[in-house]
Recover the amino acids of this structure.
């Protein structure tokens, strides 16, 4: 199954839902993936870079297309967010990029070796 496209209440605002996770306190989280254009450190033309992170489930808004959320994989998350999984490649849903952990509402920050998100001089790459 491919990943359903969802709207988020925090940056990056639009992403694909990889899986649902429920933490030890019973709160739901969503592992989302998205692509951002990045200017590599060598200054060449912008290239697409995959990103992934966990967001609180309450930050997911209505999906862009009808989605049967029961078809999205679910898992129990451990007590330590640092141990929560990154996405994996699977048939129909490939992923390669940077795993950013948990998003806190600020614009996601890529590691320096990824380069600079394209458009950051104009006000932000995420909307």
């Amino acid at each position: 199954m491919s990943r359903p496209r969802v709207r988020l209440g925090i940056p990056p605002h639009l992403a694909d839902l990889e899986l649902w996770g429920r933490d030890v306190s019973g709160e739901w989280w969503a592992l989302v993936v998205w692509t951002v254009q990045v200017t590599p450190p060598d200054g060449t033309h912008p290239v697409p870079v995959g990103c992934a992170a966990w967001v609180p489930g309450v930050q997911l808004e209505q999906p862009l297309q009808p989605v049967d959320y029961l078809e999205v994989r679910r898992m129990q998350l451990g007590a330590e967010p640092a141990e929560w999984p990154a996405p994996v490649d699977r048939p129909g849903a490939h992923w390669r990029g940077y795993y950013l952990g948990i998003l806190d509402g600020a614009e996601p920050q890529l590691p320096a070796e990824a380069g600079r998100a394209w458009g950051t001089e104009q006000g932000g790459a995420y909307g």
About this structure: The chain is about 0% helix and 35% strand. The CA atoms of residues 50 and 97 lie 4 Å apart.
